[in-house]
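ok so i was messing around last nite and threw this chain in just to see what happens. nothing serious, just curious
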Amino acid sequence: MKSLDYIKIWLKENLSAKRYSHSEGCAIRARELAQLYGLDEDKAYLTGLMHDCAKNFSNEELYDIIKNEIKTGFDESELKNPKTYHAIAGAYFVKKYFEADDPEIIQAVRNHTIGAVDMTLFDKVVFLADKIEPYQRDEKYVKKIMKIIKKFKGITGLDVALLKCFEETIKSLVKRKLYICPTTIDVYNVLIESVGDLLKEE
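result:
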């Protein structure tokens, strides 16, 4: 793995200032959540920092990389909404540019946009950190999700918070008339079945 200094320099050169600020915020929040759930805090910080490494490449560049360099490991439905491209390419970039070889890091970057029905605890922490980082996300929304985490405690609180995030994401996609990947719907349904009743208490 490349050094933290190297990664930060690369990100500053390849992301907008706003996107880099978001990435720093995600890293900080991922570390906090990792501490809360007993995970590797440094690894969570690093993954949060890198998660959007492909975000400021053009849709055309990312599509070309996905189809001609990555080629496998994605569903065609993920290519129907350009907003999902950066997660597929990001998992590839962390290996190519940062020499990451930790499967947890690579998978968490891969799963941070549409999610996965079999997300690990580490995946969930990075996914949620992206949605509630303190620098660029709406403060009221962040407070709402943090309140859920504190109210329900443990992994249950994490899942209820995730469900709320998926609910809001789906609403936003519908409002903007954007394609919703089937996987996102699947994750939402799994969470509804497991913790949907608790979300009603929120």
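not much to say yet. The chain has one domain: 4-199.
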